[in-house]
Amino acid sequence: MVMDKKEINSPKATVNFLVWIGGVFMLLLFALLAHFVWKVF
Fold first, then answer.
1. How many CA atoms lie within 13 Å of 37's alpha carbon, on the beta-carbon side?
2. 8 Å CB contact between 35 and 41
3. CB-based contact 3:13 (threshold 8 Å)
4. How far apart are the first and last CA of the chain?
5. Between 3 and which of 7, 19, 23, 32 could a Cys-Cys bridge form, CB atoms 3.0 to 4.6 Å apart?
6. In terms of C-beta distances under 8 Å and separation of at least 24 residues, what long-range contacts does 20-25 make, across chains too?
7. Cβ-Cβ contacts under 8 Å for 13 (sequence gap 6 or more)
8. What's the burial of 38, exposed, middle or buried (CB within 10 Å: 0-12/13-18/19+)?
């Protein structure tokens, strides 16, 4: 996905980026939690 300078400077692109990062972070957190739960049981 290629973004030009106008897109990078726009608030919408920033919000999309933050949402994407947040989604990945939540997924990693969930995977970590599931891993520990799997080890306990």
1. 6
2. no
3. yes
4. 42
5. 7
6. none
7. 3, 7
8. exposed
Report the residue count for the chain. 41
- The encoded tokens of residue 32 equal 């970590």
Q: What is the DSSP string of 1-41?
A: ----HHHHHSHHHHHHHHHHHHHHHHHHHHHHHHHHHHHH-
The answer to pTM > 0.85 is no
Give the separation between CA 41 and CA 11, rounded to whole angstroms: 45
